[in-house]
Specification:
Strand content: under 5%
Family: Belongs to the PPR family. P subfamily.
InterPro entries: PPR_P_subfamily (IPR050872), PPR_rpt (IPR002885), TPR-like_helical_dom_sf (IPR011990)
Organism: Papaver nudicaule
Number of helices: 40
Structural class: mainly alpha
Distance between the termini: 117 Å
Radius of gyration: 39 Å
Pfam families: PPR (PF01535), PPR_1 (PF12854), PPR_2 (PF13041)
Helix content: over 70%
Protein name: Pentatricopeptide repeat-containing protein
Length: 691
């Protein structure tokens, strides 16, 4: 901070104040001069300078004592000094204080309010959303002062903030007719308000009117339109406005424009375009700010271009900006998603050196490590939390417990859950459902139910995902009654079953050949507005096919065709069902139709048809299917060879069967026990008549 010389004049003080960049230091300097023995009195210029610098909310409390000093020194000031005070109070949403100063202007400053003071107070009411008071005040001074363009610009703002856009447009037209000549602020207010309300038709109409009226749009008008269009997801129109801006010889994109463009393009998924804008920005020698860097890094990471993001990240550091933890976390996420764990760990270390890690950083890295099955490394990051001063949140516990379960460390996951519960940790449904899923997957159903009950006691309400995991576990291990009990409990607890819930139950009852129950569940599903999907139909058709109820399966298939398109899995189920009861011709028709339905048969389909044909003793057609497999570039597996070898053996073509065995070996497909059983049985059968 500058020191006052032994003798200082108001002119010298003003020069010192202007040179002092820190407002608190400037205020101290001002106070020192006030108490300086050789200093006379502050001039209006000094008062105006110091008052203008008190706009910060932490400094606005200093204004009253400065006003008291003005009165005490009987410093006659112009309206400009009063306007500085009104602006400070307006910016800080303090209209009552502004009104108080307005009413005492003569007493404090020795000057009367003019139209500029009226406009400033009017704006103070608007800034605080006190529109009724603003309109009342306007009615008061409209007849006492000569209103000007600034007055009506504030009135435009009031109408726009109240959503009275038609009235605002009428006022704009009236201003032209009365000779007030609306300026870029008038038009900018209306355009910005139209954009915020989503009325881009009128916003663009007003924007197009500007050059017709001789008003040049400024960069703020362009920014407002581009930003609004991007937020609406209208990439094409936003780019049109951008092109107009680039073609406007009177206006040039600002750093804010580039930030709006980069943010909008990234949110629209136009990452290549965003990189072009970035390059244009650098070429035009615009210095990116921290927001520019962060926006682009986030966007490039999201697009998977982590190398590009890292180049921007290092460029940010070279430009003198320190990446904040949010930006570093975005970079960390990008590398984790790309599976580049080594680079992640390097970035992690550099973040630690500058103290730029938070709980989100730990969560990101642990998730990435668990996904790459690096459990020990993930646990080491987990153990770092206390050292880094981070408290685990619900997301942390979810990631750790889920990661341990997915990697087969169920006992460790149970310990983490228990420690969290004992320590009052913040646990959510994801942590519990991950553990329940893991336990159900290993058939540890009693433990899963224990965790489930534990969760409920802890005040965590089960959701459909949790119930679905439990129901699926019981179905998987053929505990249908327990699954149905949970299903009823789910409904009783106000947790509506999802399509996945119904699909799991339908699959379970179909496997148990309880088709009446399956039909009842399907009807309930439809009653509750849940539409059957491919999984529903696949479970139903698979169940009835296994029960040899092929006509019912075909009826379900025809019904499904009206609602959705079958996938390869469903086609294979139906073809297998038809072949299993000898209805090979119908299976062949479906097999033939698959290509035209844009669902070409796969190896499983061909194997199933081939097996059905051999069992029907139609070796010729079966051979054609084999040729089709090869023509389509599919590689026969041991199942394919076993089907052919078995079919040929059934047709007493043992030599041909052995020839296929040799072919399999040449192709690197090795026989299984089933292969040898087929051949041994065929040899024994061929030898039995002569024995």
């Amino acid at each position: 901070m500058s020191k006052l010389p032994k003798f200082v004049s108001p002119k010298q003080l003003l020069k010192l104040l202007k040179a002092e960049k820190n407002t608190n230091s400037a205020l101290t300097l001002f106070d020192s001069a006030t108490q300086h023995l050789t200093y006379t009195c502050h001039t209006p210029d000094v008062f105006q300078h110091i008052l203008r610098r008190l706009t910060d909310s932490k400094l606005v409390s200093q204004v009253p004592r400065i006003l008291t000093l003005i009165q005490k020194q009987k410093c006659k000031c112009s309206e400009d000094v009063a306007l500085s005070v009104l602006k400070v109070y307006s910016d800080n949403r303090m209209p009552d204080k502004a009104l108080e100063v307005f009413q005492q202007m003569n007493e404090i400053f020795g000057c009367d309010p003019g139209i500029r003071s009226c406009n400033s107070l009017l704006n103070a009411f608007v800034m605080s959303n006190q529109y009724d008071r603003a309109e009342s005040f306007f009615a008061y001074f409209e007849t006492r002062f000569e209103t000007n363009l600034e007055t009506y610009n504030v009135m435009l703002k009031i109408l726009c903030k109240r959503g009275k856009f038609d009235k605002a447009k009428e006022l704009l037209d009236w201003m032209w007719s009365e000779g007030f000549k609306p300026d870029v602020i008038s038009y900018g207010t209306l355009i910005s308000s139209y954009v915020k309300s989503g009325d881009f038709g009128n916003a663009l109409e007003v924007f197009d009117e500007m050059p017709e009226r001789g008003v040049s749009p400024d960069v703020v008008c362009y920014n407002s339109l581009i930003d609004g269009l991007f937020k609406l997801g209208n990439f094409t129109k936003a780019m049109e406005i951008w092109d107009r801006l680039c073609g406007d010889s009177c206006v040039f994109p600002s750093v804010i424009t580039y930030n709006v463009m980069l943010n909008g393009l990234c949110k629209c998924g136009e990452f290549d375009e965003s990189f072009k804008i970035w390059q244009r920005m650098l070429m035009n020698e615009h210095r990116p700010d921290s927001y520019t860097f962060c926006t682009l890094i986030h966007g490039l990471c999201k697009s998977g271009n982590v190398d590009g993001a890292y180049r921007v990240y290092t460029g940010m550091i070279k430009s003198g900006y320190v990446p904040n933890v949010v930006t570093s976390n975005a970079m960390l996420t990008g590398f984790c998603k790309a599976g580049r764990i080594g680079v992640c760990l390097g970035l992690w270390d550099s973040m630690g050196k500058v103290g730029c890690r938070n709980i989100v950083s730990h969560n990101i890295l642990m998730k990435g490590l668990f996904e790459k099955r690096k459990v020990d490394e993930a646990i080491s990051i987990w153990e770092l939390l206390p050292k880094d001063g981070c408290v685990p949140d619900s997301c942390t516990y979810g990631i750790v417990i889920h990661g341990l379960c997915e990697n087969g460390y169920l006992s460790k996951a149970i310990r983490v859950l228990s420690e969290a519960e004992d320590g009052g940790g913040n646990l959510d449904i994801f942590a519990y459902s991950s553990l329940v899923k893991g336990l159900c997957g290993e058939g540890r159903l009693d433990e899963a139910i224990c965790i489930f009950e534990q969760m409920k006691k802890g005040g965590c309400k089960p959701n459909s995902i949790m119930y679905n995991e439990l129901i699926n576990g019981f179905i998987k291990f053929s505990k249908l009654l327990d699954a149905m009990r949970l299903f009823e409990e789910m409904k009783a607890n106000g947790c509506p079953p999802t399509t996945a819930t119904y699909n799991t139950l339908i699959n379970g009852v179909c496997r148990a050949e309880k088709f009446v129950e399956a039909s009842a569940i399907l009807k309930e599903m439809l009653r509750n507005g849940r539409e059957p999907d491919l999984v529903t139909y696949s479970s139903l058709i698979d169940g009835v096919c296994k029960a040899k109820k092929i006509d019912m399966a075909l009826q379900l298939f025809v019904r499904m065709l009206k609602e959705s398109k079958p996938d390869i899995y469903l086609y294979n189920i139906l073809i297998h069902g038809l072949c299993s009861v000898g209805r090979i011709e119908e299976a062949l028709k479906i097999h033939l139709a698959m290509k035209s339905c844009n669902c070409p048969p796969n190896l499983v389909t061909h194997n199933t048809i081939m097996d059905g044909l051999y069992k029907a003793r139609d070796c010729k057609k079966a051979s054609e299917i084999w040729s089709q497999i090869l023509e389509e570039g599919l590689k026969p597996d041991i199942i394919s060879y076993n089907i052919v070898i078995n079919g040929l053996c059934l047709s007493n073509q043992l030599d041909a069967a052995v020839g296929f065995l040799d072919h399999a070996l040449v192709q690197g497909v090795f026989p299984t026990v089933i292969t040898w059983n087929i051949l041994v049985k065929a040899v024994l059968n061929s030898a039995s008549p002569s024995m």
